[in-house]
Design a protein that fits this description.
Strand content: 15-25%
Strand order of the largest sheet: 3-4-5-10-11
Number of helices: 6
CATH architecture: Alpha-Beta Barrel
Radius of gyration: 18 Å
Oligomer: single chain
Shape: globular
CATH superfamily: Aldolase class I
Number of strands: 11
Bound molecules: flavin mononucleotide
CATH topology: TIM Barrel
Structural class: alpha/beta
Largest sheet: 5 strands, parallel
């Protein structure tokens, strides 16, 4: 495969084999609505065969940092329509990267609400950007089973919203220590219910989210990003080869 040759992705043909990595830009409004600078930014980069968007919050609770975009209100969806239209006008293809930050956030960014995670274990030795400057991480609240089921539905709805907004597909951001990775990692998941305690149980949240995303958009349009060896955001996986092999065998 040569870089400038066409490539296949799902049932789509990409005009070349270059993909643009997702990059958080923090250019949305405080309401998570993207504006003209985001339309221009993605239009300028549509010569790539595939663009993966910056991470997009699936819900208000998912939001960890100020000025990051969302895809859970009608205003947010309508704003993304301008972005996807611009990319398509240039012959590009764009996937939406779906994001729940979990403990990688701060109550100052979350209207006073405590961050949530697989377990009540905070990030140590790092600080988080807020509109009031850098702040130490707080200890998150462990999610209940009912809340976990709701978040899985939030991912599904966000995937449906992404299709409405004109995205060609969706990618679960399960990398770099955000909520799905907080469930995957033994360093952040100390649960002893069906979502923790064993490799199989720690993989369950990601698998259930992917099942719902596939149900929402189809298997040809659903992707996942994993980072088995990254330690960003205080994450470590003790047996990455075994765990991630057991995970991707399902895809
Ligand atoms: C400012 C910045 C923002 C990023 N935002 C995201 C993001 O939203 N989602 C994601 O999966 N990765 C994100 N990344 C990681 C990049 O996609 C990429 O993996 C990383 O920069 C390493 O790429 P390289 O190996 O080509 O240097 C970000 C990286 C940077 C520097």
């Amino acid at each position: 495969m040569k870089l400038l040759e066409q490539a296949n992705l799902g049932n789509m043909v990409l005009k070349n084999s270059m993909a643009m990595a997702p990059m958080t830009r923090s250019r949305a409004g405080m309401d998570g609505v993207v504006g003209d600078s985001t339309v221009l930014y993605y239009r300028q980069r549509a010569s790539a065969g595939l663009i993966i968007s910056e991470a997009i919050n699936i819900s208000k609770q998912a939001t960890g940092s100020p000025l990051t975009p969302g895809i859970y209100t009608q205003d947010q969806i309508n704003a993304w329509k301008k972005v996807t239209r611009a990319v398509h006008e240039e012959g590009g293809v764009i996937y939406a990267q779906l994001w729940h930050t979990g403990r990688v956030g701060h109550s100052l960014v979350k209207h006073g609400e405590q961050p949530v995670s697989a377990s009540a274990l905070g990030i140590q030795g790092q600080q988080h950007f807020t509109m009031e400057g850098m702040k130490d991480y707080e200890t998150p609240r462990a999610l209940t089973i009912e809340e976990i089921k709701q978040i899985i539905q939030d991912y599904k709805q966000a995937a449906i919203n992404a299709v409405e907004a004109g995205f060609d597909g969706v990618e679960l951001h399960a990398a770099f220590g955000y909520l799905p990775d907080q469930f995957l990692a033994d360093s952040s998941n100390l649960r002893n219910d069906e979502y923790g305690g064993s490799m199989e149980n720690r993989n369950r949240f990601v698998l259930e989210v992917m099942q719902e995303m596939v149900a929402a958009v189809g298997e040809n349009k659903a992707a996942i990003r994993l980072s088995p060896t990254s330690t960003y955001n205080n994450i470590s996986h003790q047996q990455p080869v075994e765990q991630f092999t057991a995970l991707i065998i399902h895809f």
